[in-house]
Amino acid sequence: MNDRPRFALRFISGKYQGGEFPLRMNREIIIGRSSDLDMVLVEDMVSRRHAKISSTDAEVYIQDMGSTNGTFVNGEKIAGRALLHEGDRILVGTSIIKVVAVEGIVAQQSEAEARRRLEAGAQQRQATQGRPMSGVIEEIPLPDLLQLLSSSRKSGVLTINIGVSIGKIFLRKGQIYFSTINEDFSVSPQKAIYRMLTWETGTFELEPGGEMQVMNEVQDSTEGLLMEGVRQLDEFRNLQKNLPPLGSPLAVPTPLAGKLRDLTPSELDTFQLVLDHGQLQKVLDNFPGTDLDAAQNIISLMKREFVVVP
User: Fold this and answer.
1) Does 11 share its domain with 124?
2) 3-class DSSP string for 66-87
3) CA 196 and chain centroid, separation
4) Please, what is the end-to-end C-alpha distance for the chain in angstroms?
5) Which of 128, 151, 181 is the last residue of a domain?
6) 0.85 cut: is pTM over it?
7) Which tens digits make up the pLDDT trace of 230-259?
8) Residue that terminates a domain, selected from 102, 128, 154
9) 310: in domain
10) How far apart are CA 102 and CA 89, in angstroms?
């Protein structure tokens, strides 16, 4: 019987973060809290016998085993058995697991050796970090992570650290109700979320609890925020080639090349912000609408020479 592994489970977050476990053909792996299982995850969100992953010569399946909190694949709660593909992301408790093509030493490991390596890595992580749920956004892009957290109705504070900035997204049963970047409360929570969706490198950590009392909670659904954020991200990236770097100074030339009465109300607001702040990033921060709307206004003003880079 051929049991050579074609795929492996790569742990993006959770107890075994950074480890890989080969999926040998014609095998079953039971995941749960019980100590006699193939893969033990001792945490409140994981049932005693939570999920089963089975592999044939050609395919890999996952099945929820009647768990209390469910098993999720790519943000969707599964019912019954689901076929897995390379790149799929599984959520069990606080563990995010990615299905990857098997490579190098992982392909040669026995299941016993793979388990030993996973446990050794888990013990080292617990001794040095002890974080409930963390990882890197290079492994799971922020939109995908938020979709998983939304579908599984997670609550807490998601902190994203990219070195130069720290973002915080506050979740209540999977719904985003507030967010900040560098604790700058002058920037709207929606704008902060849209900006964080552009971050492609960095670390994340979800801390349970941390309920924050705010005056104006985000009313849009998490799904709606993500859809709009991704749309704006695509359009903003298309516009960036026409914008100076974010730290660039902006100025109003004299005399003006045109008449202010020819500007739209939104363009006039942007023009005033250039006068008040004189820097692209500050104009974006203080513009009442989205970064996309502000960028479109700035490009229009620069083309007509109402605004210049000195």
Assistant:
1) yes
2) CCCCCCEECCEECCCEEEECCC
3) 9
4) 72
5) 128
6) no
7) 899 899 989 989 999 989 999 999 999 899
8) 128
9) no
10) 15
